[in-house]
Amino acid sequence: MSAPLLAVRDLATHFFARNAVLKAVDGVSFTLDAGEILGLVGESGSGKSVTGYSLLGLIDPPGRIVAGSVKLQGRELVGLPTAELRALRGRRLAMVFQDPMTTLNPVLTIAAQIRLAIAAHERVSARAGRARAAEVLTRVGIPDAARRLDAYPHQFSGGMRQRVAIAVALLNRPDVIIADEPTTALDVSIQAQILTEMKALVSELGTALIWISHDLAVVSALASRILVMYAGRIVEQGPTASVLRAPRHPYTSGLLDSLPARAEPGAMLRQIPGLPPTLAALPPGCAFQPRCPRADSLCGMAPQVTLTGVRGWRCHHPLDGGPP
Amino acid sequence: MLGFLIQRFLQAIVVLVVIAALVFLGVFAIGNPIDVLISPDATQQIRLDTIARYGLDQPLWQQYLAFLGRLAQGDLGRSFVFNMPVLDLVLSRLPATLELTLAAVAGATLLGVPLGMFAGYRPHSKVAKLLMGLSILGFSVPTFWIGLVLILVFAVSLGWLPAGGRGETVTVLGVEWSFLTLDGLKHLLLPAVNLSLFKLAMMMRLARAGTREIVLTDTVKFARASGQSEWTILRHHVLPLISIPIVTVFGLEFGSTLAFAVVTETIFSWPGLGKLIIESIQSLDRPVMVAYLMLVACLFIVINFLIDLAYAALDPRIRARR
Ligand SMILES: Nc1ncnc2c1ncn2[C@@H]1O[C@H](COP(=O)(O)OP(=O)(O)O)[C@@H](O)[C@H]1O
Ligand SMILES: [Mg+2]
């Protein structure tokens, strides 16, 4: 097996609040192969975005990566000088954010914003910059792109703005794009379009994709492998089909049960009981324990990761694997 | 756009009529102008004649209409003290104040915005804390005191700069300007610094607050994610985004300083509007006060209009709404 494109080990990103340390990411490990689509799911607040930002070194104070390693083709990114990290951002690693209404600069034209992103890595003339902007916008499905270069973000719909953001991410054909819930803020129909297009684009360019979502249905439609995150930790991972067929962690199973597609028509959706955890007041041991139907006294101790082949989970009382 | 202009023009007229009423009530109707116009030992006949000549025996509303009528024709009367048309008098003092104010406000902005942006970008650095401490000083130490200290240090003790006056001037477009000669610039420096300290503090705080807020937004994070340098982000993303409140304050400060640079102009004997209005209040030179107040109203109307135009230039979303 060749070395993975991206190898994350024991990554921990903490926020130092006034009187508490919030462990938003608390020992996350995973790998990503070139061209692979990896899904990262979990309820909101589970640390998905912070994981994504950490990979690019985009954590603002009071947050900090306190431990762990992120290796891109063997090169350590944690602790890299800012200038070297900056040279990688947008060129090797890119990111698309959740809310297209807030990511683009409202007072700059689309062309100006794309030009700034190009100029971050190479010198371009204004004309070449425009041509490149038009090309990349066309690629992400913006009709009549050349004529809309001088438009401002507010003249675009949410879906179109997110396409512009995707175009910026694709600009330099990076090795990895981290897509942080890029369709969550959009209409369902546009969400489906962008999902399909994005899948086609990354497979065409050979770009690996980390698709973050709170929606297991979206992730399972896209990713070949998924990571399930809970309270800053990966609680289960494995190939999508396998995890969906036989979840081992009770949390994953709860997420699956709450999917509308799995419910009887007309029946109430099954919810995971209890509230998502607050980082400031996590129970000792397994963070899911207060909501877990299988919890017992053993769960007061943090479960280690159990690995079997491609599957892995963090639970003292995993569900049955069933036939492999 | 044309509709917008017409609308603003009509608004301006309404504002001016209201201001004129207030000025009229404040300056003409309160107290008795007759006592200023004639000597105390004048005969009763002279007194009555003067009252009739100035229409002071008419009902108040008629006097107001007559006042408005004269205003509309640009006739603001003659100064009792200088014995010249007040409009000419006030306009002759305007350039001195204009250049002083512009130097002070522009200097405060050009220096305060970068310093404030730095303080907002590195809020926990020593430099940022020092700057914020100094800005509190700039807010709280009275202008007249700083003016006196400046004169004592730079004019009296060190003898580097003159203590007052406009110095040598050059006439351009029929108006005298100090900033075009070296001597004039030397005279301009101390009063401009004196006037600008408060504004410098304000610009710094404004730029700092805006920068602190904007560097935490997704817009900046997204720019960083595409590999843009911190310098590019400050220059091309943050600065345009914080410029709207800065332009607003620039305009309002410019207007209010133009109108009320009284203290500094008095201390530095700068022959501008502020000095004129203080003198005319002391000598009860009512036509000068009226002309001055009307001019100030007009200035604010023009400045507000320019601020609105600047908004539209800076923010495409505002442009779209017109
Ligand atoms: N800037 C911040 N300051 C303090 N805490 C933060 C900050 N950003 C994130 N966190 C903490 O990290 C947790 C995970 O956040 P996030 O990664 O955004 O969750 P999500 O899985 O919804 O993307 C949040 O619940 C919050 O407690
Ligand atoms: Mg998130």
TrEMBL record, chain A:
Superkingdom per UniProt: Bacteria
Coiled-coil ranges per UniProt: none
Stretches assigned to the ABC transporter domain: 6-256
UniProt GO BP: peptide transport; transmembrane transport
Record's keyword annotation contains Hydrolase: no
GO CC entries: plasma membrane
Keywords: ATP-binding, Cell membrane, Membrane, Nucleotide-binding, Transport
Annotated localization: Cell inner membrane
UniProt key word ATP-binding: yes
Family per similarity comment: Belongs to the ABC transporter superfamily.
Protein name per its UniProtKB record: ABC transporter ATP-binding protein
Natural source organism: Vineibacter terrae
Taxon lineage: Bacteria, Pseudomonadati, Pseudomonadota, Alphaproteobacteria, Hyphomicrobiales
TrEMBL record, chain B:
Membrane topology category: Multi-pass membrane protein
Gene Ontology terms: cellular component: plasma membrane
Keywords on record: Cell membrane, Membrane, Transmembrane, Transmembrane helix, Transport
Gene3D superfamilies in UniProt: MetI-like (1.10.3720.10)
SUPFAM superfamilies linked: MetI-like
Any GO BP annotation: transmembrane transport
Transmembrane regions: 12-31, 100-119, 131-157, 177-198, 238-263, 289-314
Keyword Nucleus: no
Compartment list: Cell membrane
ABC transmembrane type-1 domain location: 94-307
Pfam entry (one): BPD_transp_1_N
Protein name: ABC transporter permease
Organism: Vineibacter terrae
